[in-house]
Design goal:
Elements: E1 14-18, E2 29-31, E3 34-42, E4 50-57, E5 63-67, E6 69-70, E7 77-84, E8 88-99, H1 100-113, H2 118-133, H3 140-153, H4 160-164, H5 174-177, E9 181-186, E10 190-195, E11 202-206, E12 215-216, E13 222-223, H6 227-231, H7 234-239, E14 244-247, H8 295-307, E15 311-316, E16 319-320, H9 325-329, E17 345-347, E18 350-352, E19 356-357, H10 364-380, E20 385-389, H11 396-409, E21 414-418, H12 423-432, E22 436-437, H13 447-460, E23 469-470, H14 479-499, E24 502-506, H15 536-542, H16 548-560, E25 570-572, E26 574-575, E27 580-587, E28 598-605, E29 611-617, E30 631-635, E31 641-644, E32 647-653, E33 659-666
Parallel strand pairs: 2-10, 11-14, 11-24, 14-15, 15-20, 20-21, 21-22, 23-24
Antiparallel strand pairs: 1-3, 3-7, 4-5, 4-8, 6-7, 8-9, 8-10, 12-13, 16-19, 17-18, 25-27, 26-29, 27-28, 28-33, 29-32, 30-31, 30-33
Helix pairs in contact: 1-2, 2-3, 10-11, 11-12, 14-16
Function: Maltosyltransferase that uses maltose 1-phosphate (M1P) as the sugar donor to elongate linear or branched alpha-(1->4)-glucans. Is involved in a branched alpha-glucan biosynthetic pathway from trehalose, together with TreS, Mak and GlgB.
Subunit structure: Homodimer.
Protein name: Alpha-1,4-glucan:maltose-1-phosphate maltosyltransferase
Length: 670
């Protein structure tokens, strides 16, 4: 008896299909309205032509077929770009086939032009068209045109030259949409999860509610801001165009080992403590700090935000102060040291004596159920987004299970992973369910660093990992911002807002807060440990020292230009200066609401200390334009217009206008 090994290749091999994950246990994802490039390697033996068709089934059952186009010659790679506009799980596969019409057109053109087998080639073509006409699913008008071409090919009274033009007849483009396919071979069926648009597109603003409206009394004590006073800040946030407000933990704060100003161990009676030291006599993760108000006050805050078009993102920090109810009720959820104490949190050289990390190994079921209950509780209060603190210090399987359970019941809830850690863990968190991820963006500042980083997040990991380009955080004030002055803030905001669909700022960024704690990469007088009310109006109206207007312009540009709502479409262009970064974001008209191409070109001087003059060299084909043409661009910040082409002079003064955000407004004969 002969055992036959199963044949997996297929008659027309279809391999290396994407989107795909590095690990096939998890499926790729996209967000509503994202244009996704589907690709596959399709080839065959010999020299006959092949074709490829992408077949998608939407969550509602609609079947779409999209002819794939070849990429670089000789690679056998094929691509079809599709805008995925329905949330849920899509199913798709790629069909490779023997493209007989393409083979005939190629061979017939060569042979007829060489005076070889002309009549034979005409007859072969006519018979192919006869077969196509016999397909009753083909439109009647197309069948009539093909019948006429077949007859003309067989018209021996006509000259060879007259019939030669029929090989290139535009009517034969009918076969691009409806090919005469033979030896069709399907790839395996694949899935892609499309999540709601906010999972991939948003402008985030972070602030501490306790600082908004906080007042220092005559005796040196403080009166905390509340949800009611914080709600007054929402109008200004909305005016800047932000659509997500992220709140650090709003829960009761422990007293034991409470931290004082600048992370000191000797907290005074007026020090409010770190919001991340969660839990006290007033409750734990399901409670609000009494100084902020009540749950009803929080719900009113959420309603006010919603009325302004803002969603609330709440911090989910799975840790506890020594005073958290968990410590007494569930000691098995923490790590006991040999001396009988509980291990506190550390991230050397940083120490967090006011925080106990959770141990997930002794009672994983109990912890899962408790966290599930907590998140359900806040969803019931109107929270739609959770920014997860340090998820990389918790088991991966915990997050996979938790997010899957929550998204099954609440598919619109978004989780952002605050994981500044090694790539393997960052990427794995995204694969198992996190919709968004913090990234290394804050530490990528040179032209070379930014090109490498943005290429990676837009091309290499875009099938599963969506970066949220925060420019600063309470913990991160980079040297670039410390010493770069207002130009550094302007440049970082410009790049973050235009290079990726999701970006964010922490309150105070618009005031150019740049003084760091000596020897640290975080702001001095850190808001994590004290009240920090800011007079935004005075800074803007009296001192003239605010970036708020510019942040609003950036968000308005984002809302007006759909090309900026895509992650995968960034392309880099050359400049003759190593400090001038140039990139474009282009979206074809077939994917825009008005049917017109949308193209943005960003030119940024990433050296915040100088004036740069250089020549920018554009790859016009990458932005849908014909190389060599002239076209008009408009600076969307200043309104200035220029005529541009392949090579263009720019002057970027870090002290006045360090960046251009250009819109291609007119491209004659493109």
């Amino acid at each position: 008896m002969v055992t036959t090994h199963p044949v997996l290749a297929g008659r027309i091999p279809v391999t290396r299909v994407t989107p795909a994950l590095p690990d096939p246990r998890w499926r790729p994802k996209a967000y509503e309205g994202e244009v996704v490039p589907f690709r596959a390697t399709v080839f065959r033996e010999g020299h006959d032509q092949v074709g490829a068709m992408l077949v998608l089934t939407s969550p509602s059952g609609t079947v779409l077929s999209e002819r794939m186009s070849p990429l670089a010659a000789g690679t056998d790679r094929w691509e079809a770009k599709v805008l995925l506009g329905e949330t849920g799980v899509w199913h798709w596969h790629v069909t490779g086939f023997d493209d007989e019409v393409a083979t005939w057109r190629h061979d017939a053109a060569l042979k007829v032009d060489a005076g070889v087998d002309a009549e034979l080639m005409f007859e072969i073509g006519a018979r192919l068209l006869d077969r196509a006409v016999a397909e009753k699913t083909r439109p009647l008008a197309a069948r009539k045109r093909l019948t006429a071409i077949a007859a003309a090919l067989r018209e021996t009274a006509a000259s060879v030259a007259d019939r030669r033009v029929l090989i290139d007849d535009p009517s034969l483009d009918e076969f691009l949409e409806r090919p005469l396919a033979r030896l069709a071979t399907d790839s395996p069926e694949h899935e892609i999860l499309v999540e709601r648009r906010r999972a991939g597109v948003g402008s985030w603003y972070e602030f501490f509610p306790r600082s908004e409206g906080a007042k220092q009394l005559k005796d040196g004590s403080w009166k905390s801001g509340t949800f009611r006073t914080a709600a007054k800040r929402l109008d200004a946030v909305a005016a800047m165009g932000f659509d997500v407000v992220y709140l650090p933990p709003i829960h009761p704060i422990g007293l034991t080992n409470r931290k004082g100003r600048n992370n000191t161990l000797d907290a005074g009676p007026n020090d409010p403590g770190s919001p991340w030291a969660i839990g006290g006599a007033a409750g734990g993760h399901d409670a609000v700090h009494p100084d902020l108000g009540t749950l009803a006050d929080f719900r009113a805050f959420v309603r006010r935000a919603s009325a302004l078009g803002i969603e609330i993102a709440l911090d989910l920090a799975l840790q506890a102060s020594p005073d958290h109810p968990w410590v007494a009720e569930h000691p098995e959820w923490f790590t006991q040291l040999p001396d009988g104490t509980i291990r506190f949190a550390e991230n050397p050289p940083k120490k967090y004596q006011d925080i106990y990390p959770v141990n997930f190994d002794d009672d994983p079921e109990g912890l899962h159920d408790e966290v599930l209950r907590i998140v359900h509780h806040w969803i019931a209060q109107g929270v739609t987004i959770f920014r997860v603190d340090n998820p990389h210090t918790k088991p991966l399987q915990f997050w996979e299970r938790l997010i899957a359970a929550l998204n099954a019941e609440h598919p619109g809830v978004v989780f952002l992973a605050e994981a500044f850690t090694r790539p393997a863990m960052m990427q794995a968190l995204a694969m198992v369910g996190f919709q968004q991820s913090y990234s290394y963006f804050t530490w990528r500042n040179t032209k070379e660093e930014l090109e490498e980083f943005l290429t990676s997040v837009s091309q290499e990991t875009a099938d599963f990992m969506r970066p949220n380009l925060f420019v600063n955080t309470p913990d991160i004030l980079t040297e670039y911002l410390q010493f770069g002055g207002p130009a550094a803030f302007t440049v970082r905001a410009t790049i973050a807002a235009t290079a990726a669909p999701t970006w964010g700022v922490y309150s105070g960024f618009e005031l150019f807060e740049s003084v760091a704690r000596p020897g640290a990469e975080e702001a001095i007088d850190n808001e994590k440990y004290e009240y920090k009310p800011r007079d935004f109006a005075a800074a803007e109206q009296v001192e003239g020292r605010s970036l708020a207007l510019y942040l609003g312009i950036l968000n308005a540009i984002r809302n007006a230009h759909p090309a900026l709502g895509q992650l995968r479409n960034i392309r880099f262009h050359a400049s003759d200066d190593d400090a001038v970064l140039v990139y474009s974001k282009h979206l074809e008209g077939r994917f825009t609401a008005d049917g017109v191409d949308d193209t943005i070109i960003v030119v940024a001087n990433v050296d915040p200390h100088s004036v740069r003059e250089t020549t920018v060299h554009l790859d016009l084909a990458a932005i849908g334009l014909t190389p060599g043409i002239r076209f008009e661009v408009e600076d969307l910040v200043t309104g200035h217009r220029w005529e541009w082409g392949d090579a263009n002079y720019v002057r970027l003064d870090a002290f006045t206008r360090p960046a251009h955000i250009l819109h291609v407004v007119r491209a004659p004969n493109a």
